[in-house]
Design a protein that fits this description.
With 371 residues, the protein is α+β, with helices and mostly antiparallel strands. The chain is built from 9 helices and 13 strands. It is 38% helix and 22% strand.
Length: 371
């Protein structure tokens, strides 16, 4: 049986192996995600979700939508900061700007040359600040001890696309115009007319641009090219004038670019590891998971109903570099309701929260300028 030891130097490795369930569709679009093709009637392709080859039932399946680990890790790091902020300041201001960037992002590194790592100073920073002990920092550099993997679907799935349209209520129903004063109704009708003319003349400019390119390719006589350019400039000015009169360069009513999602109901295998972590760091990790359970969202488009998740992980622990792990129970994240954890982890969380409230830690940025 794993016994919790009180020495500060004692370190544990805790493994969490289980699943994350998409209660609602999940959307995320990290920079550099390859784009697909635009759908019919759309000018741009839907925002893509990352895809990877995933081993499912012993078979490698390509182009499976996944939820990347950094998106989950970023959420948990911010929840860890929220734990500290609420405990020390009741949710109010606790950090200066440099403190915030240090704890949430690991600091903001400049272009200057990085100094050689000071192991003694790093150990001191870790002891003072379990956020940095868990998630690491870049300025000054400190390594992370909380390894958080991607959500990998357990069955073959395809991304779904959520789209939409921006609707003009006054176009949809003339009755809505009665909500406006008479002078505003006249203003709306003028805007509509100018937008229609702008759209029509824009199509004419596109036709002239094609003719001009064709004339250049065929070596048309200069006079004909000059005539086409003059006509194009005249039409472009009219387009600009109508857009200015309509107070807009696009129509109010228009289709919106869609985005890909992992379908609701998808079950994803998921792993997290606290590697050679202190009891304070383990306690903060569990507190962060608890905060996540009360605000159980990841990814983008939360306002569209996306991002709601539940989770369940089998937890096992070993002391130091012991050869075997001991299973200690199930960690269950129930959306909006809380977190159920084995007693060993609950004790670590309770001890950490007691120490946090007693002022045992220092969350200030090493480089922060203070009065």
């Amino acid at each position: 049986m794993i016994v919790m030891r009180g020495e500060k130097s004692v370190e544990y490795t805790v493994r969490f192996e289980g699943v994350i369930r998409a209660v609602s569709p999940l959307a995320t679009n990290p920079p550099g995600t390859p784009e697909g093709r635009a759908l019919p009637g759309q000018s741009n392709p839907p925002k893509p979700i990352p895809k990877a080859t995933v081993l499912i039932d012993g078979t490698a399946v390509a182009m499976v939508p996944i939820f990347p680990g950094p998106g989950i890790r970023g959420t948990l790091r911010r929840k860890a900061v929220d734990v500290v902020r609420h405990a020390l300041g009741g949710g109010g201001p606790v950090f200066l700007l440099d403190d915030h960037y240090y704890n949430v992002l690991g600091g903001v590194k400049g272009a200057e040359k990085e100094e050689k790592a000071d192991l003694v100073a790093a150990a001191a920073r870790r002891a003072r600040n379990p956020i940095i002990g868990l998630f690491g920092a870049g300025e000054p550099w400190d390594r992370s001890r909380f390894y958080i993997g991607a959500g990998l679907p357990t069955k073959p799935i395809s991304a779904e696309v959520i789209g939409g349209a921006r609707i003009d209520d006054f176009v949809r129903s003339a009755d809505a115009l009665q909500l406006l004063p008479e002078d505003e109704r006249a203003r709306f009708l003028a805007m509509t007319e100018h937008n229609a003319l702008r759209s029509a003349k824009r199509k004419q400019t596109e036709k002239l641009e094609r003719e001009l390119r064709a004339a250049d390719r065929k070596g048309a006589v200069p006079e004909d090219v000059a005539h086409l350019k003059a006509e194009l400039n005249r039409l472009q000015k009219e387009v600009d004038d109508h857009a200015q009169a309509a107070f807009s360069t696009v129509s109010v009513q228009r289709p919106l670019d869609g985005y890909e999602v992992i379908p609701a109901g998808t079950e994803m295998s998921h792993r997290m590891t606290l590697r050679l972590a202190s009891l304070d760091e383990i306690g903060l990790a569990i507190a962060a998971l608890r905060y996540w359970s009360l605000d159980p969202f990841i990814g983008a488009h939360l306002a569209h109903g996306c991002g709601l998740v539940a989770g369940e992980w089998k937890a096992s622990v070993r002391h130091g570099m012991a050869p075997q792990f001991e299973e200690i129970g199930l960690v269950s994240m129930r959306p909006f309701e809380g977190l159920d954890v084995p007693s060993w982890l609950a004790d670590a969380e309770r001890t950490f929260m007691d120490r946090l409230g007693s002022g045992a830690f220092e969350f200030r940025a090493p480089s922060a300028k203070r009065a």
